[in-house]
Design brief:
single chain; mainly alpha; 5 helices
C-alpha cells in the first residue's frame, strides 16, 4: 500500500492546534490548582485523573509534531502543564 504524502498544516490549522493545546493547559493547571470543580463534574478522583491524563497525552502528541517544534511560540506553558499533570495523576 502506498502512503499518501504528508501535507503540512496551514497557519490557520496550526493556530487551531495551539488554541486546543492552550485549552488543555488551562484545564490541567486549573485542576491541579483546585480540583473541586473537576471532582464535582467527573464524580470521582479516578475520573478526574483520567481527564488530566487525556489532556496531558494530547499535549505530548502535539509536541511531537513538526509544526510544534518549528514554531517560535514559547513551549514553557505546554511542558509545564505536562509536568504538573503527570505529578497530579501520580499523587
Amino acid at each position: 500500500m502506498v502512503e499518501a504524502p504528508t501535507v503540512a498544516p496551514t497557519a490557520e490549522q496550526i493556530a487551531k492546534h495551539f488554541s486546543g493545546m492552550d485549552a488543555c493547559v488551562a484545564l490541567i493547571n486549573d485542576t491541579v490548582a483546585d480540583d473541586t470543580d473537576a471532582l464535582e463534574a467527573y464524580r470521582s478522583a479516578d475520573e478526574v485523573k483520567l481527564m488530566v491524563t487525556r489532556n496531558t497525552e494530547h499535549l505530548e502528541i502535539q509536541a511531537a509534531k513538526d509544526w510544534y517544534s518549528d514554531s517560535s511560540k514559547s513551549k514553557t506553558p505546554y511542558t509545564g502543564a505536562v509536568t504538573a499533570g503527570k505529578a497530579y495523576v501520580a499523587a
